[in-house]
Structure formats: C-alpha cells, structure tokens
Hints:
The protein is of the alpha/beta class and 407 residues long. Helix content is 35%, strand content 26%.
Amino acid sequence: MKTQRIHDGIDQLTIDVKDILFEGLWEMPNGVTLNSYIVHGDDIAIIDGVCGWDGVPETLFQLFDSLNLDVKKVKYLILNHLEPDHSGWIEPFKKIHSDFEVVCTDKGAELYRSYYGDNETIHVVKDGSELDLGNGKKLNFITIPHVHWPDAMLTYEVNSQTVFSCDAFGMFGTYDKSNASEYTVDELKSFTREIDRYYSNIIGAFSPFVLKAIEKCDGIEISRIAPGHGLLWDTQIDWIIEKYRSLANCQKGGEQKITLLWGSMYGMTEAAVKVAEAVLKASGISYEVHRVPDSSWGEILTSVWTSKGVILAMPTYEYKMFPPMAAVLEEIGRKKANCRLGFRFGSFGWSGGAQKELDEILEKYRMNWTFIEPHEFKGRATDESLEIVKQQTHQLIELVKQCESAN
Ligand code: FEO
C-alpha cells in the first residue's frame, strides 16, 4: 500500500490486490491496484475507497493514518461507482465515522441504499452539478452510465483539471511506480496487455457507453486522469484515451489478427490445429493460439476482442460442441465481440452437432460473425482433410488482411 500527493491538496491512496479472481471470475496473473483519492478543501472529500477485497477496511485506515488524516473531518464520500471493489469499505467505515454525506448519481443512490442502508444524506448529482469544497477545490460531475455499471460518473476537480475516473481508463496489474510519467513510453506500451485484458474482461460489453464517455471527456481540459485501477495518467493522457477508444471500437471488429481457439479430446482435432497454426506462422499475420479449457477465459476473451479473425477448432461431444468451447463462446457472445470473420473445423465420432450449437450461440447473442466454409471430418483427419484446413486457413488470413482494423 502507498500514498502520494498528486497535486496540491489531493492525495492518492493505493493498495495492490493479488491472488483473487476479479468479480469472482477473472484471473489476474499480475493482480490489480485499487486507488482512492482525498481532496482537501475547507471540507474534505474521499473519492471512492480502497480496502481489502473482503471489505475489511484496516488497509484504508492505515493509509489514513499515514496521511495524518482525521477521519472524523471527512464530510463527503464521492461515489463514482458503487461496485463493491470501490464501495465495500463503507459499511465498516460507518462504524468509526457516521457524520458524512454521500454524493453519487440517482442510480448510485439506489445502489447505495441496497448495499449500505438509507441512514445517510445522499446528494444526487447529474451532469453539470458542482460541489465547492472551499479553499480552491471545486468538483464537477459528469455521468458516464454503464462504464461500468449504470451508476457510473466522473468527478472533475476544476482547478487541478483532474478527472477521477474510477473504472474508466483503468488497467489490471500492480506496479512499482504510481504514475505514468515515471515510466518510459516503451515501458507503458509493455503494459498494454494489462489494459486490453482489463478492458475486454470488465468493460468491453459496455463499449458504446465508453465511446459516449470519451465524447464527454473531449469537452474538458484534462491535466491528469486519476483512475480507480492502475496508473495515474499524469502524462500520455491522449494515449490512454485513444487506447480506450480503440478497444471500444474492437467490439465491432478487432484488429488484423487471428485467434486460433481450439480444444481436442484424443488428438484428432489437434492434428488439424497444427496444420492451421503452421499456416498462420508462415503467413506473418499477428495471431494467438489458445486451447480450451487450458487457457483462462480472460486471456481468450482478450485475444478474441483484439482479433478480426477467429478460427474455432473443436470436436463434437455428445451431439453438441466440445463443452469448454461452448462455454467460452457463450461468454464471448455476452461481451458482444461482434462482426468477426471465422473458420471452424473439427472431428466427430458417430455424430455431428458442433455446428448446430455454434449457430445457436451466434444467433442467441446476435454476434454477426461471417464464416467461410467449415470442415468436419469423421475420426482421424485424412490428408485430404488436412489440405482443406490448410487452404481454408489461407483463405481466412487473406480475408482478414483485406479488412481495416476496427481502430
Ligand atoms: Fe472497479 Fe466496476 O468496479
């Protein structure tokens, strides 16, 4: 855990969280940070909060102590977003300080009451609302619904031109340094996968709302972005905004890249996968290979999110698709990773059925994927089947190369 002064009268509090699944679901090999901010005007406001993932607030209280902050002087809790990774500290906080007021959107107020009761005064804010803390600290509020939950908003401190963005412009990973300016541009770019994985796993489904939020940001002067997760963007502000715009646009197409997603029971489909992978490698196109169920859903989703082309290779299993493939495709559908170019192949034993289930998933989530001719083979792939897989993989590569990247 650490604290830093990010501007005169504004402190950042950070903890690193590791060895948990985000939302109880998403693996984070490098953990995630949680950031909270304290704005010192004549009145003191906490923007969002940090605590252990289980809601125990000792960490936050230690951070308060390290700042010599008298908790009882906190007048406002500014809640940009009520998801418990940012609000789970409130209930125990109330045990040591109950004389505060809550500031959030109308949807935030509903969520506050459902999670934390209705004993507090809640100031509902909307676009253009202001809160003057005195001593040169003035907060404006900008709603960004569905980035990530419907309650989400940005808080903007006018004089320092600081955007407190909560989930927006966040990233997975934990970092030795707190500020983007402490890293070289190359180092920042090396963190791209953490941004891609955070975005596709957590925010991606809401990409149209992300684009609207970015439009709103276009209208304000920004000197720093202070997110709830990841680095403080005190430099490369345009870069992180454009990165988010680009990831949002990936919902409708992805980049000139192919994800080879495959599963195999007894090596029959795997033999054809090796042929497809060799073609991808020789072609020079950017590609990733993920096996189900071995690769994490988070990595698979990240890869598909950023890929225009997807090769699905799986056997039929009991009249349907190989189950781990169906499960991950359902999640890809829920995230609305639409408009991909696809090619499917795989083995079957006594009956087909994988294609039928794939069609059902594509239809159910209105994914609008376009497939070239699939290829199924009974039992072991013949040389003729392997040649078809090879030629179809070439065809998909050419189609992906003809597409413009979504960004
Ligand atoms: Fe970091 Fe949607 O909570």
